[in-house]
Specification:
alpha+beta; Immunoglobulin-like; 6-stranded antiparallel β-sheet
């Protein structure tokens, strides 16, 4: 009986969100000021840490009007993937894969507390405004990505990082819109740069 009630509640909630957004679109609440989102990388670097190197990166994050509405007015969580990859180029062969890491971030809004929460694993940070939450999402610091034993002194490596919306985590009624409708999409660019391993690994005090 409890399982049946839970399923009904989830179905009713999904239908309610869809109806709410449809009403906004008809009345101009969404379509009147709709704009697509974007995630622009600003800078990124690999910094010496105790056991290797950590990633620092900054992004300008704009989720657009549609996703802001389903987050704030519909209570739908948004998921973002931070993807990092490090390769060693080789002259006569394909690049050697050194390491990669994907970090998942969950952005939610509570109508009860009127706060936004950004979560990554067991870590949570609350924000009073969406602007502050998106600024926190776009600020990556001290994320361990590679052990020192994986890198060769004086070698050059190709690094790349990208922050993007995980559309597969959206409720199914919105997944098709997120693919076909540009106003639901968040354009995400990849930042690439060269990293040269120093002769010795040192950690700044």
């Amino acid at each position: 009986m409890m399982v049946f009630i839970t399923r009904c509640y989830k179905s009713a909630r999904a239908i309610g969100i869809a109806l709410m957004l449809a009403t906004l679109a008809v009345t101009g609440g969404v379509a009147g000021a709709a704009n697509a989102g974007s995630i622009e990388p600003v800078d990124a670097s690999l910094n010496a840490a105790e056991d290797g190197y950590s990633l620092a990166a900054n992004f300008n994050v704009n989720i657009g009007t549609h996703l802001e509405d389903i987050l704030t007015k519909g209570g739908v969580p948004l998921y973002f993937n931070l993807e990092f990859i490090l390769e060693r180029p080789r002259k006569y062969w394909v690049a050697e894969h050194i390491t990669s890491r994907t970090e998942v971030y969950r952005l939610t809004y509570s109508g009860l507390t009127r706060q936004y929460r950004l979560s990554s694993g067991a870590l949570h940070t609350n924000y009073n405004s969406l602007e502050d939450a998106l600024r926190g999402l776009g600020r990556i610091g001290g994320l361990p990505v590679v052990d020192k034993g994986r890198l060769l002194p004086s070698e050059s490596y190709d690094a790349a990082v990208r922050l993007s919306l995980d559309r597969a985590q959206l409720p199914k009624p919105f997944q098709l819109d997120a693919i076909t409708d540009k106003e639901w999409q968040i354009a995400a660019k990849t930042l690439r740069w060269k990293f040269v391993m120093p002769n010795s690994l040192t950690v700044s005090p």
